[in-house]
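Running log. JK asked me to keep both predictions on one page so they can be read side by side. First protein, sequence followed by its tokens:
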Amino acid sequence: MKDLSAISLTGMAWAFAAGAGIPLMATLNGAVAKATGSPALAVVLLFAVGLVASLAVLVTSGQAVAVNRLQALPALWFAGGLIVAFYIHSVTVLVSRYGVANVILFVMVAQLMMSAVIDHFGWWGVPRKPIDPTRVTGFIAVVIGLILTQSDPPPR
């Protein structure tokens, strides 16, 4: 992973916007599931809209020729679709039970932990960044911060 100083402001804003969209997506998809009585239908609708939007970007960006390279990819690399389907189904169901902030809290902690492991071992060609005491301290601070933001305030 690059140092934060190496990430452009545009990249930071893009990542921030993508991150901010996660709880919005979870909330909206949960509302569709509740209104229709079908979390599975809500997920299918989300993926259908996402597929149309992604196809539009693929075609208009001139990247459609990359489709020819799909057959050379390892089968494991297609697991991302299964993982995102599991994620979307999960948050669609869990948000209505536990609230957006609580679900996203656990999502964020899991993302931090898994991304640290992936970086540590350099899996799938990402730059290796070993887990060291400084990173562990940072992860602990973030997890404590996430927990504190979700804790009920003490009674007055």
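And the second, directly underneath as requested:
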Amino acid sequence: MPFTRISCRQDCSDDEIDRISAILHQALVSEFAVPEKDRFQIFERVPERLRVFDSHYLSAGRTQNFLLFQITAGKMRTREQKQNFYRALSDGLQRELGVSPADVMVVIQFTQAEDWSFSAGTLFTPAVAVLPASPASGGK
């Protein structure tokens, strides 16, 4: 149940955002054990003057193409899962969009299940998660 906020440059196109979204989601599904339909992302196009970052801090050199992925996840992942996810995301962005790996930064924060309410003001409890009724059941 991750939620991701992606900060990108202001002139990032709708097509680029769609592709970043797809690459991110594929990496989450394949490497972070996220269900296919569990997709919650917010993109923020940030003007250059509001994007303050050091070009070389722990990086080979960030450019104005710098992407920041802030992920809030409800389930802890292993060190190996995290590393595999970072690599899949970075490799996918480079392969599909030509984004330099130096321009990809990821920050992950983990929470407890009770820190989430997915709708209706209801505390999320994994053991009693309610899925929407299928149309075939008439909503019952």
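Observation for JK regarding the second prediction: The two ends are 25 Å apart (CA to CA).
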